[in-house]
Here is the input.
Amino acid sequence: MSFREKYWRYSLFALIVGLGVTIFVKLTPFLGGLLGAVTIYVLLRGQMWYLSERKHWRRSAAASLLMAEAVFLFLIPVSLVIWMLVVRIQHITLDPQSVVTPLRHAAELVRQRTGYDLWQEDNLQSLLACLPKIGQWIVKSIADFAINLVVLLFVLYFMLIGGCRMEEYVREMLPFNRTTGRKVMREIRMIVRSNAIGIPLLAIVQGIVAYAGYLIFGAPSPLFWGVVTCFATIIPIIGTGLVWLPLAAYMALDGRWGAAIGLCAYGIIVVTHVDNVVRFVMQKKLADTHPLVTIFGVFIGLSLFGFMGVIFGPLMLAMFIFCVDLFKKGYLEGHYKEPS
Here is the structure.
């Protein structure tokens, strides 16, 4: 290879990397919408193939129908749940007394039980100073959610239209031979589908089970805390305990020791075991993914991608393990064939 050809090759590579990094940084605010579009596309790609290839629909008509399905089955329910939580938090920021009164009651219970006064002037001032910041965060979060929703729908439509060509292009860009490339694409689709279906189902099951416990033991605002428990399932193993354990502690401070002990036992015996059993069974059934990959993948993904990290964190960790295994078999054991 001549010097000129090397110069062209390395210059092109540097240009691709530089432009790619710049584009990625600028698209970071829309990452949730982009990853959401990829997730819903993986769930709908089978239906798109059936309508366009088997039924011979125009791809634009099939994509429009599946877009409507995505809106009614995925986006509207998620939006309603998020809006419920936002309205509740917004009510607190507009009416600080609604949160100050129960906190004062809880602080008084702590003082009676322990002798320590949490309700000091400095603590109150800090609390009131945080409320406007919470309100600003809510407004920003609503705006970001709306923008990412538009991005999701826009990208999803074009992914459905050109899905086959897009997948083939991505497969050809992978540094694997054709057989391994197909296996990688199949693994990606399987893991995304597993998490996109399994995590919402787990959240619903956990929310219903926890809501039943809150009703049985008389926890305050059982429906609201049941919805919060659904979101807490994002954090594996300990997630739901971040909800029912403080509720049990509050009920104990309020003198309702029987209900508090009952809720605590219900959380440990029922809620936690339902979380572990359902999570591991669904992950094993849908993708045969090792539980540790899911658990550590979620922690990694949340820090990198935010909410969508619950899906793409385990995918990233599973792809890392897959590449390590491929390197071991191909280059250490000599079974790998170069890309062709």
Observations:
- Residues 33-173 form one domain.
- The chain has twelve helices and no strands.
